[in-house]
């Protein structure tokens, strides 16, 4: 399947955690990408990152396993260490057996400070899936792009500053770009639709690149 075919397939996906459900998913992807393209015309890798960052949501579709919503969308968080109170719906984490397990319920748990987020196991979701797809296919997007794809739902980190003890130098650089990206991901939704056929050649050229 091509990237563009996957973008079109995403139109049949409904993300129950997204309050803006009245527009096709491809419009959200293109609105984010076009907003970044307008403000950062020289960062073409970021335009493409915006286009593909949510493609992992195809895991909800029957041909990709029909995973339940809770296993695909919503916020992600580390496992193997104490659940931070900034995790959304924190009270429900008390029902997780890891919550009272002394191996996992300390601040660092099974990890060491500064080990790097790539050494930390995250809860499963569309972020990690798309990151793995990029890796498996020899994607040449720069490291900050892969950081954005993998952690854009990791709100406890980039909204609340939780779990920063695990970050290394590379993660701090990635977080700068993720913070820049987030405002386009969350606040670029518009009633003005992007002309898909008009912009398609540009994004096809980035995919080829």
UniProtKB/TrEMBL annotation:
Quickly give the catalysed reaction.
myo-inositol + O2 = D-glucuronate + H2O + H(+)
* InterPro entries for this protein: Inositol_oxygenase
On whether Oxidoreductase is a keyword of this UniProt record, the answer is yes
What does the UniProt keyword field contain?
Ascorbate biosynthesis, Cytoplasm, Iron, Metal-binding, Oxidoreductase
GO terms of molecular function: inositol oxygenase activity
Record has Iron as a keyword:
yes
The enzyme class is oxidoreductase
| Cofactor: binding details | Binds 2 iron ions per subunit.
- In short, the EC number is 1.13.99.1
What does the record give as its pathway? Polyol metabolism; myo-inositol degradation into D-glucuronate; D-glucuronate from myo-inositol: step 1/1
Cofactor dependency: Fe cation
Family the entry assigns: Belongs to the myo-inositol oxygenase family.
Q: What is this protein called?
A: Inositol oxygenase
Q: Which organism is it from?
A: Stylosanthes scabra
Q: Give the gene symbol.
A: MIOX5
């Amino acid at each position: 399947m091509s990237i563009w075919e996957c973008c079109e397939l995403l139109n049949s996906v409904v993300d129950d955690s997204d309050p803006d459900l009245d527009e096709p998913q491809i419009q959200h992807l293109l609105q984010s990408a076009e907003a970044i393209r307008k403000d950062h015309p020289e960062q073409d890798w970021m335009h493409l990152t915006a286009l593909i960052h949510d493609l992992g949501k195809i895991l909800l579709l029957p041909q990709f396993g029909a995973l339940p919503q809770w296993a695909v969308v919503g916020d992600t968080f580390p496992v193997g260490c104490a659940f931070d109170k900034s995790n959304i719906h924190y009270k429900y984490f008390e029902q997780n057996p890891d919550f009272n397990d002394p191996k996992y319920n300390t601040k660092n748990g099974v990890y060491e400070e500064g080990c790097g987020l790539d050494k930390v196991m995250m809860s499963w979701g569309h972020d990690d899936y798309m990151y793995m797809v990029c890796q498996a296919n020899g994607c040449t997007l720069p490291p900050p792009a892969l950081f954005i794809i993998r952690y854009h739902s990791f709100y406890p980190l980039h909204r609340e500053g939780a779990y920063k003890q695990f970050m290394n130098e590379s993660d701090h650089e990635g977080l700068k770009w993720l913070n820049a990206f987030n405002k386009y991901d969350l606040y670029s939704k518009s009633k003005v639709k992007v002309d898909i056929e008009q912009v398609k050649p540009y994004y096809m050229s980035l995919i080829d690149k």
